[in-house]
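Moderator note: this is an archived Q&A kept for reference. The question asked for a predicted structure of one protein chain; the sequence and the answer are reproduced below.
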Amino acid sequence: MTLPGKLSALRLPMLPVSVAFALAALAPLAKAQSLVELYESARAFDASYQSAKLQYDANLARADQARAGILPTAGLSAGASRIGVEVTTTPPVNTSYNTQNATLSVTQPLYRPGNWATYEQGLRQVELARAQLESASQDLIVRTSQAYFDVLAAQDTLTFVLAQKEAVNEQLAFAKRNFEVGTSTITDTREAQARYDLVTAQEIAAGNDLRVRKIALDQLVGVTESQPRPLTMPVNLPPVAPADAGIWVQQSELLNPAIRQAQSNAEIAELEIKKAEAGHKPTLDATASYNVTKNPSSTAPAGISSRANTSNIGLLLNVPLFAGFSTQNRIRETLSLRDKALSDLEGARRSVAQNVRTAYFGVQSGQGQVKALEAAELSSQSALDANRLGYQVGVRINIDVLNAQSQLFQTKRDLAQARYNVLLGGLRLRLASGTLTAEDLQQINGLLAR
């Protein structure tokens, strides 16, 4: 057999495997889900997000309670009693009768600085609750995307391991044929057998990892046997825009939920000082009441029924004089808590700025790594072809071919993972800056197979 014939025989068994992998990849696409579809399922199913949403509703209701302190209050009371009268005279007089009364009272706060501070705190609580919900929503986007690409990466790893196993099996069969005809030693066969056994172990591990990743995704999105759509090849990864870390940091100072929560906490702490200081200030309320008292004729003195209607409108002033130094100590406490909240705010700003810069340069580094690995994939393929040719002509040994095969498939795995890392890195950059929304998934959705 000529040398070209040997090379053709060497590559021919790879064709059915490639076709099989292609068919296996295309078969589940009929029921496969996109990233956006699985994210929408996660929004309706994920327990952590649902908990955050219910907590948001509870926080809104709690904030509305603070409004009660500045609104009027009204009450209605009614009662019935029996009155007994004993007069010590000569002769003594003993009598008893029934009385009935009802009172309607209304109070409107006019000057209560503590209540107004509580009301303003309620407004800040709404902003705090909104930031907390946005943080949970953005976290769900990243968690869903991470689980989505974890499954794709596990599928790629298993596919590459199976392809490598087929290539090693082919090399093993070739080494056995050469040993039988006396053109190679038993060492080539044993090296190929050892590599085949190693790849078999890797196949078992990759299969188990894929099952675990799928279980995690199913649990997150609430879909049984979910099947993510793979990336369409070739992939044109979106660039980072804007291409300036400083702009991303500036955006984060205004939009990042962690900074907004810390800002709301600082404002709430500032208002808490006003509430404490209100302990030294007077309060003024407008009051009004209407009372009806009735004595039925059957039991009233002298047998005469009576009814008294009493109305009252006035102002109620309350001036605190001394409260055992509790107000002064409360002010000192709130001043320290305000300073703590401001310190937490500054810490949040620094942490977010660092996270934004780290995420930004991580995406840039990832894009460079993808380009380098794409070049390495071509080089590894060329190196494998050269080693195969050298093995046929006797200038390379079997282990050289096996190492070249391992390098090629390892590069393919690293390249696939690097692409996923770049897409996830873009989402994490927007998460760090606080600009991540569900619409950002549409761009990634456009890169998936239809």
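Archived answer notes: The longest strand covers residues 93-111.
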